[in-house]
Write a structure and sequence with these properties.
By secondary structure, the chain is an alpha/beta fold. It folds into two domains: 172 residues, 3-Layer(aba) Sandwich (Peroxisomal Thiolase, Chain A, domain 1); 147 residues, 3-Layer(aba) Sandwich (Peroxisomal Thiolase, Chain A, domain 1), CATH 3.40.47.10. Helix content is 33%, strand content 24%. A five-stranded mixed sheet has the order 1-7-6-4-5, with helices on both faces. A four-stranded mixed sheet has the order 8-13-12-11, with helices on both faces. A two-stranded antiparallel ribbon has the order 2-3. Helix 3 crosses helix 4 and helix 8 runs parallel beside helix 9. The longest helix is centred in the last third of the chain and has 22 residues. The protein is globular, with a radius of gyration of 19 Å. The protein binds oxa(dethia)-CoA.
């Protein structure tokens, strides 16, 4: 019998209505539209505003959108995985909050934390659950309310991030479509360059952690940039080489949207022209775990059955990876 593969059979997405533009940021910190655009490619981001709104309020509409697009009832879902660095709470897991908001009653679920590579880690995990033959419908969500951990007085980070969520449904496929290969990597020595120090067991919340701004993202941009350029390009190249794929075989590169310059370097290393690169960083900024599924959501009408697509990410941890998917929808 043909091996069970995990095909992506539906995509869903959600971004909140409120916008934070470069012009808005010019009024908040010492920056310019010109600097932001040329250094990052970002023009605007969507921000989830409102008391009591959390990451699950981004993920739940994305999952409902996915159910509508596939024509399924939420109760058909067997397992829900949420990749996020901004969980609603430390515990219980965000997957539980999302299930409750969507009305998913028959599933188990859990969160995965791998920063900007979270969606790829979760997709590979979800695919393995399908490949085991034990479950038929696994939903993988990438969702982050980055505005909840951004210091809007720090011009080096506040211009980068936005809020959003994207989701895919994985189902068994016996015809060779779906997640075909994945290379995931991590290097804990990179943790010092991109992190949020306060609130965990290392520095439990205290007046001091608040005063020291330890509940906000810290990023040393240049080393992260350097590692990201080589890490994302190398792992993508390794993936296509070990599967004997050439640039002509690849329909789309779906890169994590952290910086247009990192994306361009990855595409160049793979020999791909700009038309084959999904890009929406200008509209959403860096939504961490949500960037890749939001690309799939935005470009869903341009994808064709049988397309070879390469998803690639690099992020805090460091974590990075690349995944080869043969598109089914
Ligand atoms: O998604 C997870 C992984 N994260 C990433 O992949 C992000 C990787 N890093 C980057 O994308 C880039 O490093 C940044 C976009 C964060 C920064 O760009 P850069 O080209 O590395 O700039 P820089 O940090 O070297 O700063 C250059 C200059 C500095 O001024 P001086 O020291 O040259 O006078 C900064 O103070 O730009 C200044 N600067 C700004 N100026 C205007 C930093 N932020 C701003 C700003 N507006 N918002």
């Amino acid at each position: 019998m043909e091996k069970i593969r995990a095909a992506i059979t539906a995509v869903g997405g959600y971004v909140p209505e409120d916008l934070l533009t470069n012009a808005d940021l010019e009024k908040m910190v010492d920056t310019t539209d010109e600097w932001i655009k040329t250094r990052t490619g970002i023009t605007e981001r969507h921000i989830l505003r409102g008391e009591g709104k959390a990451t699950s309020d981004l993920a739940a509409p994305a999952v409902l959108d996915l159910c509508r697009n596939r024509g399924i009832d939420p109760n058909e879902i067997d397992c829900l995985i949420v990749a996020t660095v901004t969980p609603d709470m430390f515990f219980p897991n965000t997957a539980n909050f999302v299930s409750d908001k969507v009305g998913i009653k028959n599933a188990w679920g859990f969160d995965i934390l791998a920063a900007c590579s979270g969606f790829l880690y979760a997709l590979t995990t979800g695919a393995s659950i399908i490949e085991s033959g034990r479950y038929k419908k696994v939903v993988v969500v990438g969702a982050d309310k980055m505005s909840s951990i951004v210091d809007y007085t720090d011009r080096t980070t506040c211009i980068l991030f936005g809020d959003g969520a994207g989701a895919v449904l994985l189902e068994p496929n016996y015809e060779g479509y779906g997640v075909l290969d994945s290379i995931l990597k991590s290097d804990g020595s990179g943790g010092k360059y991109l992190n949020m120090k306060g609130g965990g067991s290392y520095h439990p919340p205290s007046h001091e952690t608040v005063d020291n701004k330890e509940h906000y993202i810290f990023q040393d941009g240049q080393p992260v940039f350097k590692f990201a350029v080589t890490g994302m390009a190398d792992v993508s190249y390794e993936l296509i080489e070990r599967n004997h794929l050439t640039a002509d075989d690849i329909a789309w590169l779906v890169p994590h949207q952290a910086n247009k310059r990192i994306i361009d370097a990855t595409a160049r290393r793979m020999g791909l022209s700009d038309e084959k690169v999904m890009m929406n960083i200008h509209r959403y900024g860096n939504t961490t775990a949500a960037t890749i599924p939001l690309c799939l959501w935005d470009y869903r009408d341009k994808l064709n059955k049988g397309d070879n697509i390469v998803l690639a990410a690099f992020g805090g941890g460091f974590t990075w990876g690349a995944t080869w998917v043969k598109w089914w929808i």
